[in-house]
Amino acid sequence: MSDLTAAELDKVRSILKREPNETENGIFTVMWSEHCSYKSSRIHLRKLPTKSDRVLVGPGENAGIIDIGGGYAIAFKIESHNHPSFIEPFQGAATGVGGILRDIFTMGARPIAVMDALRFGPLDDPENGDRNRRILEGVVGGISHYGNCFGVPTVGGETVFESCYNGNPLVNVFALGVFRHDEIFFGRATGVGNPVIYVGAKTGRDGIKGASMASAEFDEDSKDKRPNVQVGDPFMEKLLLEACLEAMRTGAIVGIQDMGAAGLTCSTCEMGSRAETGIEFDLELVPQRETGMTPYEIMLSESQERMLIVAEKGREDEVFAVFKKWGLDAVTIGVVTNDGMLRVKDHGKVVAEIPNRELADEAPLYDRPHNVKPYRPAPMQAPEFKSRDLNADLLALAGSGDLCSKRWIWQQYDYTVRTNTIAGPGGDAAIVRIKETDTSVAMSLDGNARYCALDPREGTKLLVAECCRNLSTVGATPVAATNNLNFGNPERPEIMAQIVEAIEGLSEACLFFDTPITGGNVSLYNETLGEAIWPTPVMGIVGLLKTAEPVTIPFKQQGRTVMLLGGLGDCDATRFGGTQYAKVVLNNMWGLPPALDMDYEKRVQSAIREIVSHGHAESAHDVSDGGLAVALAECTVNGVGASIEIKTGLRPEFALFHEGPSRILVSTMVPEKIEEIARKYKVEALRIGVTMNVGLRIGDGFVTWIDSPVDRLKQVWENALAEELSPVHV
Amino acid sequence: MRFGVVVFPGSNCDHDAWYAVSHNLGHSAEYIWHDSKTLGAVDAVILPGGFSYGDYLRCGAIAKFSPVMAAVREFADTGGLVLGICNGFQVLVESGLLPGALLRNRELKFVCRPVTLRVETVNTPFTSAATKGQLIKVPVAHGEGCYFADDATLTMLRHDDRVVLRYVDNPNGSLDDIAGICSDKRNVMGMMPHPERASDALLGCTDGKVILESMIHSLSAAAA
After folding, report:
1. Which are the contacts of A392, defined by CB distance < 8 A and separation ≥ 6?
2. Catalytic residue positions of B, numbered
3. What is the full DSSP assignment across A311-349?
4. Pairing of strands B81-85, B44-47
5. Which three-class secondary structure state does DSSP give residue B147?
6. Which of A101, A419, A421, A638 to mutate to test the interface with B (most CBs of B within 10 A)?
7. Is the Cβ of B209 closer than 8 Å to some Cβ of chain A?
8. Across the interface, do A412 and B141 touch by the CB < 8 Å criterion?
9. Contact: B9, A727; criterion CB under 8 Å
10. Residue A728 — very low, low, confident or very high, per pLDDT cuts 50/70/90?
11. Rounded CA separation A143/B109 (Å)
């Protein structure tokens, strides 16, 4: 049985000029799956900016590469493992980490940081809470298992809870690696006559057709798909990393690519296609974990920790010697040819014969109908609501799933291994130094499905702005981006409209903030029983800064001036509907996301970078989810509080909890210097208060809205997640 | 001084130990591959953290059979300084160079965070530069760091002043808050926390340096 449509099958026939056999049919099915071919999104992805002076390699390779100066470069990318993580959370998430790490080191870079964007259904969901907790614990356990053993620090990420993820959790993993410019490798099978070498783990029956599973919705039978989820072996991956990097240094390797989605099929035809060559190999030579595997199974297996290498003819032994040292299989299975064909043999008999280019690059592209309004799960009209106890509101927000401390999660990740982590989990952005240079890399992951559900275009622009603001707040200049587009079924026009709007918003914002997209991932069909997730684009943006001690979120000393760079911002009832206040306190959603003035935002970011890099800020924190009051509460977690006065005409809920962008909290000994820089960039810099020892007090000069001991706020914020899960020592 | 850092397949803190010795302390460090039968001309050996051979059985259970461990044992028997950090501690315990066992953390989860340690004795070459009772902040990062020993062993360790480091805030359920112990000849120490990760001011803390500095002082004193 084929998963290809009738029209796709016709296209296969016209390429082959005959009927495909079962193996060929399977090969086309996975290569032309949504997951591998981006057939529904590709025509829109072309709208994204992909170039800058720093971009050495853009989309299309295993990862994007950015020049960081001094002869060094970084490779980074984000990828989803959503479907497998729902079916088998631990292995699904673990192999998600494994897959993205291979994408990085197949290019020659040593992975030095991982981050994760996770989405789950609410842990206290009356119907699905138990399952949601089990999925979260499994996913976190899987990431911890794989990343810690491999030896890459997991330096940050984000975790968000919404009901729309009850049946469709999201696991998006970002990885970043470092290397010298002259150490970059590509997945190209160049040099006719060169040997094609298989290295790493043996091929088994696991993960067969995983790519096509990831391109379908879930239904009642989905639990039967558990055998489609691969099993990861991080130790094997660690050996593979060291062996590959060492083998690359011999100079005997011409091209290399990992076997990820669609395994041996994808790596062979893509390497051949990029080099405009053919590849001929015999399945008999492929190391196998089980007996009696059919050509179909071997070609479609997604067994983990495998790589395909094209070596220089006559220098195979140099490659073999390295892999032998690391105790890994390395076997010549075939040869590069000049006819452009992927020719698969089994004991000498041809079992599949397909032109590489057509298979890898000529999947049918669809301009799916999207000429309708994007699906909106909420009304435009704002409801009336009465003021309540603002202190209780703040505590509710501080202890809510999205805003509370995620220590329970990140404490299970080794975030200090490799001794580069200058700023780890829990900050606005993570910072990892590059030891060989005086440069550090900052990175931030961000997504906000509430904003994107209300307006996919504006919501996506807000994400890009926030990521760049996070980076700027730690003093880094944003330089490039990767993105993971998580959506529902693109065959539904109202979903496809979300996708198109989001991509266009992404394009506009990335162009404006000078952060070209160097690669990424699209995950569609995130639906269970016909219910789609809210549109969830996730951004991963990297920035560069000079290596130095970091400026962090918490207030450090009492008696410092607290300043709000960017000003109080504005909000009306419509723009309040996507906030955490609306979600947590009012259990509601409506209207539009906060308004973004990109030009003003960019100037605020320039200002904070100058403030931080000149050492004028003792602490700095971006105001985002939960608004100003939550940001202030987060600044008090080290025990230093503040007395804040906000002069505003807004109602207190809006003033305290609106999520207008372009705002950053700073504590400082030199407020006049900050004002000077703010004037230069024509942005507001308000003196809103002073740090003090005991509590957090916020008022408007007449009425005290918030008056809370900082340890009470901290206790609620710090313990909320652990109370839902199992206890953990702080 | 010359430090040898053993590299097992799956070691992943080998580079960190090497970097701490060579860059943060300015001494020379070299890697020793696991199938090497000799250590070369080194003054001290570090067994680094990681997941030797994947640690799919018990942590360190396979590493003890590696050729290099025979050389490490011989080095230790002749008084050489051997420091096992994290997985290195597990390997020392499995190899019988140190008593007791390291079990899964009390909460059955990997834990990565800074912990405060108390230096319980300065009568070791690993703590001679510290002061007794000194509190140092050093990160842990392990899933199986819960120290356990039978009563007789524990009594012996206490009696012989071999409990070198204790947790002030026990992160893993270790018996008697034990974070690090030394051998009867005091030249082999195992500890779960990572001193090599706390030896660079840029990363926020240099409290771990005192362990490596003690080793260097002891070696210098012995050489003089």
Report:
1. none
2. 86, 194, 196
3. E-TT-HHHHHHHHHHTT--EEEEEEEESS-EEEEEETTE
4. parallel
5. strand
6. A419
7. no
8. no
9. no
10. very low
11. 12
Quote the pTM value: 0.96
Is the per-residue pLDDT at A351 higher than 90?
Answer: yes
pLDDT computed for residue A208 by the predictor = 75
For B33, the token pair is 């591959």
A658 carries an active-site annotation: no
Asked whether residue B111 carries a pLDDT value surpassing 50, the answer given is yes
A405 touches chain B (CB under 8 A): no
Which of B56, B171, B197 shows the shortest C-beta gap to A416?
B197
Chain A residues in contact with B53 (beta carbon < 8 A): 235
A-contacting residues of B 63-82, CB under 8 Å? none
DSSP category for residue A373? P
Distance CA B211, CA B128 (A): 8
A545 contacts in chain B (CB < 8 Å):
none
Q: Which of A44, A81, A616, A658 is catalytic?
A: A81
Quick one: tokens of B138? 């050093």
Q: Residue A103 is which amino acid?
A: D
Q: Do A235 and B200 touch (CB under 8 A)?
A: no
d(CA A351, CA A284): 12
- Locate A157 and state its tokens: 């990420």
- pLDDT one-digit tens code per residue, A430-465: 999 999 999 999 999 999 999 999 999 999 999 999
Q: Given pLDDT bands bounded at 50, 70 and 90, which one contains residue A1?
A: very low
Can you list the positions of beta strands (E) in chain B? 2-7, 28-33, 44-47, 81-85, 101-103, 111-119, 135-142, 146-148, 163-167, 178-182, 188-191
- CA pair distance A509, A520, nearest whole angstrom: 16
Q: Rounded to an integer, what distance in angstroms lies between the CA atom of residue A312 and that of residue A490?
A: 43
pLDDT tens digit sequence for A603-617: 999 999 999 999 999
Structure tokens at B135: 């509190």
Q: Each residue of A560-595: pLDDT tens digit? A: 999 999 999 999 999 999 999 999 999 999 999 999
Taking CB atoms and an 8 Å cut-off, how many pairs form between chains A and B? 91
**Neighboring chain A residues of B169 at a CB cutoff of 8 Å:** 729
| A328–chain B Cβ distance below 8 A for any pair | no
Where b means 16+ CB within 10 Å and e means fewer, A432-442 reads: bbbbebebbbb
Q: Which helix (H) or strand (E) holds A37?
A: helix A34-37
Q: What is the pLDDT of residue A261?
A: 80
Determine whether the interchain pair A415/B112 forms a contact, defined as Cβ–Cβ distance below 8 Å. yes
Looking at per-residue confidence, does A232 or A497 come out higher? A497
pLDDT in tens, B124-152: 999 999 999 999 999 999 999 999 999 99
Q: Which of A322, A416, A431 has the highest number of chain B CBs within 10 A, making it the mutation to test binding with B?
A: A416
3-state SS class at A421: strand
Q: What is the ipTM of this complex?
A: 0.97
Cβ pair A295, A264 in contact under 8 A: no
Using an 8 Å CB-CB cutoff, list chain A residues near B17.
none
State the average pLDDT over residues A212-216: 65
